[in-house]
Amino acid sequence: MITAADEDFLRRAIDIAAHAITLGDAPYGSLLVGPDGAILAEAHNTVRRDNDISAHPELKLARWAARELDHDTAVRTTMYTSCQPCSMCSGGTVRSGLGRVVYALSTEQLIELNPDSGAWPAVAQDGPALFDVARAPIDDYYRR
Asked: Per the database record, which ranges form the CMP/dCMP-type deaminase domain (predicted)?
């Protein structure tokens, strides 16, 4: 359920996205809000500027949270973002331990507004293979 406070933080994420355009960056913005309601960190998309496909604000903040927040704080922290996180950012968010994500535009809505946003082709994946060989470093690492 989206609350009035959630809407206020979403407006901040949208403001961050709008400001990114003035810097020559893509219009995506995010922020983290801690358990006490304080803004912990903010970021916008810098993919073009940094020439880095991973420079999405959601992934930047997930990485920040994983480095800076203890588990108990992370699970009570909310990420607010102007658009629904892509699969790369969703994976990072899960691994970061954050407890909640609230977004303004869905992926479907973004694609309606900008069809090129959904133009990513599927990448073929083959496997699994070489189980006995591949498991050796995994077994070695986790036996320590």
From this structure: 4-121
pTM of the model: 0.93
Q: What is the pLDDT of residues 108-119, one digit of tens each?
A: 999 999 999 888
Cα(15)–Cα(29) distance, rounded to whole angstroms?
A: 8
> How far, in Å, CA of 66 to CA of 119, rounded?
30
Q: Which residue blocks in 23-126 are alpha helix, DSSP H?
A: 47-50, 57-68, 71-74, 87-96, 107-113
* Numbers of helices and strands, H then E, in the chain: 7, 4
Q: Is 31 exposed, middle or buried (0-12, 13-18, 19+ CB in 10 A)?
A: buried
Separation of first and last alpha carbons in the chain: 44
